[in-house]
Write a sequence for this structure.
């Protein structure tokens, strides 16, 4: 295990405050990072503005070369990065490698290859004959300084997935990592420094909500927030007051629909992995399962059997499938939801308790006999719990799946391709997977984002890149010597000519259009002759 990337051990003025990195498995402090004060946030914004101009002026090939260097550094230092993520979040090493590092490498690689094509001006052909003398195009310009406020659950992949396109587009960035994952945040800053990113283009501002608020107060050009729906509302309000555009990637309550013709072996393994990966602390966790009555008993048996085989323990042991939850407060939230569910008739058929090994270790849990009166089916759980509700048929499953304020992702399990696609079309969600869960997040071409309480805007893919640029429409007149027929100098003749022109373009039959054209020769001349205005 390496030393903290920028752990502050030396003396600092008494007024300096710190953010501590805590190992959730032991409660031990493993690093301390200087928190940004209100003045330093303002200074960071001015520094970012200055740095952004130079960065955006660099050729795109040069900006992409920095992304390649970052990719190579992540590759070289991947084991050390995995150590830090594992220690700070408690997630198993396999997950740090697959869900964080592999994703970051692929994003940097993909964007470095695609950005120059995506930034090219795009022609906007004009279909209207009245406007054929013009040509237009869309230019992609940097936004300026973007703020990224990020959560702790994927502390490497989420910021990197947004920093990379922001940099490719020519922006400067203020990154506020979660106060629960400051070490990973500092490490990201260090990796980009080593990749040769000019000073000031990416600044990591450590701290909690107060630093996030202070960043928004400085009026960055756009805010990208990833976190809970509760905080998302506050961010939307703060941005709204200042008319700052935002992208909000919020929580989920993802449903999984298991139809009677689905592959139950695969579906049960996916439910168990999807419900418990990262100890259930993923926005794309499978939290609600709706299974058709005919196969419900067998499906539940499979889920219980597989849940009992999930190994819980310190993430540093290679044999652990799930580690600790991030903090005891999170464990209490899961317990509250389970108590409420049991009081309303739910049965806990696997797990349901803390492990004595440590306060933050919670057993992977399966609940059945659940319904939508329970918090467990309405609020985000964000812990290792899958709740299974038996439904009569696919229609009831779709109705239940859509009965939620969240709409991030969903999945449907069936061997019938057409049925799968039909159900996907009926689900309220930003993304739907047919016969898999959550893994679309790792597809760099796939947009990610939700609707309703799951937020707005998109990250990843070309659509996520489009969120990082200002699209400017430019139009060029090719015949500027001619006065426009719609300019002043109105007359009865011009009104008649305009009427005839509309008839030529939009009369409901071709016969009428041709007739108007033949008769309207003089009118067209009226339109064209207005060159002296
Ligand atoms: P959180 O909302 O508590 O905090 C997220 C970030 O916002 C942190 O950096 C925090 O310091 C900052 N913050 C808190 N209050 C703020 C305020 N008033 N102003 C400005 N910044 C503020 O979320 P969390 O506990 O870190 O993360 C878990 C949540 O994130 C879950 O709900 C999860 O579903 C969601 N999440 C969503 C996605 C997605 O892509 N949709 C991905 C990961 C996590």
């Amino acid at each position: 295990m390496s030393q903290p990337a920028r752990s502050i051990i030396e003396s600092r003025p008494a007024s300096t405050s710190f953010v501590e990195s805590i190992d959730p498995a032991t409660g031990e402090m493993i690093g301390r990072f200087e928190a940004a004060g209100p003045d330093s946030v303002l200074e960071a914004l001015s520094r970012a503005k200055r740095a952004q101009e130079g960065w955006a002026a660099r050729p795109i090939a040069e900006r992409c070369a920095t992304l390649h260097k970052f990719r190579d550094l992540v590759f070289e230092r991947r084991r050390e990065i995995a150590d830090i993520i594992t220690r700070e979040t408690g997630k198993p090493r396999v997950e740090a490698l697959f869900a964080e590092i592999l994703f970051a490498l692929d994003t940097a690689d993909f964007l470095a290859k695609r950005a120059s094509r995506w930034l090219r001006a795009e022609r906007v052909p004009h279909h209207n004959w009245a406007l054929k003398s013009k040509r237009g195009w869309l230019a992609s310009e940097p936004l300026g300084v973007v703020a990224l406020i990020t959560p702790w659950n994927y502390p490497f992949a989420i910021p990197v997935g947004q920093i990379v396109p922001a940099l490719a587009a020519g922006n400067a960035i203020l990154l506020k990592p979660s106060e629960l994952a400051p070490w990973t945040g500092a490490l990201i800053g260090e990796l980009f420094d080593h990749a040769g990113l000019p000073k000031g283009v990416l600044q990591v501002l450590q701290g909690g909500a107060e630093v996030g608020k202070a960043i928004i107060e400085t009026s960055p050009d756009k805010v990208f927030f990833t976190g809970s729906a509760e905080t998302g509302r506050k961010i939307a309000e703060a941005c709204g007051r200042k008319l700052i555009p935002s992208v909000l990637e919020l929580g989920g309550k993802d449903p999984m629909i298991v139809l009677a013709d689905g592959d139950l072996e695969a579906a049960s393994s996916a439910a168990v992995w999807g419900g418990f990966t990262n100890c259930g602390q993923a926005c794309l966790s499978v939290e609600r399962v709706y299974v058709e009555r005919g196969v419900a008993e067998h499906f539940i048996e499979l889920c219980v059997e597989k849940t009992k085989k999930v190994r819980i323990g310190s993430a540093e042991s290679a044999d652990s499938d799930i580690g600790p939850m991030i903090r005891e407060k999170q464990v209490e939230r899961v317990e509250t939801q389970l108590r409420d569910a049991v009081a309303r008739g739910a049965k806990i058929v696997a797990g349901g308790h803390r492990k004595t090994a440590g306060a933050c270790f919670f057993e992977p849990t399966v609940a059945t006999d659940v319904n939508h009166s329970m918090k467990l089916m309405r609020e985000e759980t964000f812990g290792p719990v899958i709740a299974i509700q038996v439904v009569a048929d696919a229609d009831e499953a779709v109705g239940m799946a859509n009965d939620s304020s969240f709409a991030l992702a969903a999945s449907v399990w069936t061997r019938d391709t057409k049925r799968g696609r039909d159900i996907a079309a009926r689900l309220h969600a930003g993304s739907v997977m047919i016969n898999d869960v959550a893994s679309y997040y790792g597809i760099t071409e796939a947009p990610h984002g939700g609707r309703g309480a799951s937020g707005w805007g998109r990250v990843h893919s070309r659509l996520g890149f489009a969120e990082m640029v200002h699209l400017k429409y430019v139009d060029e007149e090719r015949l500027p010597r001619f006065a426009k027929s719609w300019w002043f100098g109105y007359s009865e003749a011009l009104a008649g000519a305009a009427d005839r022109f509309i008839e030529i373009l939009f009369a409901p039959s071709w016969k009428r259009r041709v007739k108007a054209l033949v008769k309207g020769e003089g009118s067209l001349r009226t339109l064209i002759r207005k060159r002296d205005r």
